[in-house]
Amino acid sequence: MTTPASPTTGVQLLDVPPELAGQRIDNFLIARLKGAPKTLIYRILRKGEVRVNKGRIKPDYRLQAGDQVRVPPLRLAERDEPAPLAQGLLERMEAAIVYEDKALIVVNKPAGIAVHGGSGVSAGVIEVFRQLRPDAKDIELVHRLDRDTSGLLMIAKKRSMLRHLHEALRGEKIVDKRYHALVRGHWPAGKKNVRAPLLKNNLRSGERMVEVNVEGKDALTEFRVLRRFGDFATLVEARPITGRTHQIRVHAKHAGHAIAGDPKYGDEDFSREIRELGGKR
Q1: Which residue range or ranges hold the RNA-binding S4 domain (predicted)?
Q2: In a domain, 57, yes or no
């Protein structure tokens, strides 16, 4: 007995209309390649198999009006509809909404939940809200938070809101992001700027690691002390002036003050001590 092979597409050429300018290439492909697993989409992006205007692009490339996207042949999944998500996760994220109107959702994302699926994660915040708000056809993440970071996350329900907020975040910095982090040791200054170039590396496992490297992109984070706990720990406010992947986490480590509970760049001994004192993560 044999089972039929999953259907395979040919090369696809997708034109980008003006209303999609500013959208990330991964979200563009996820919305258009129905039946293609997200893991496959992220893989062809990482390998450089997706071309825009005949040139290679990075996975975080933002589309421009008039771009032509070339997608290689893909083996599609047999089922187009996503599997229903766990009811408990849906209820948890619904309860985490702090603001919603016709164009925008603001959710207090818990730690431990990814913002999107891929790289071993079946579903994240955006998949949850696409299921919770099926009538919002253009629902997209405005920005991102690391899986182990909690905090306010904006989700646009309309393309016009997505463009407006992208301009507010990237242009004149009408909106900025500030994070609180508990770091190891006694942060020496009340305020300190950490400027160190960051280079992204993708491991064979698909995991992304970032390091301080002279060949990386310029990155600047402003840290301000909020509270000290002797020489053991310091609560700081971190304001990323640039927006590099894992920027705050890597800059804190580079400054000699790893963030508590950070499984990738943190100090396990410090994190264990925090857990023993009652820290949740």
Answers
A1: 23-82
A2: yes
**Catalytic residue, candidates 146, 148, 218, 269:** 146
DSSP 8-state secondary structure symbol assigned to residue 191:
E
Mean pLDDT value across residues 27-56: 86
pLDDT band, residue 218 (cuts 50/70/90): very high
Provide the domain limits for residue 113.
Answer: 87-170
92 shares a domain with 62: no
Residue 138, in any domain of the structure: yes
Q: Are strands 233-240 and 179-184 parallel, antiparallel or unpaired?
A: antiparallel
Check residue 208 and report its DSSP letter: E
Is 267 among the catalytic positions? no
Query: What CATH number does the domain containing 138 carry?
Result: 3.30.2350.10
Task: Give tens-digit pLDDT for 107-149.
Answer: 999 988 888 876 666 788 999 999 899 888 889 999 888 888 8
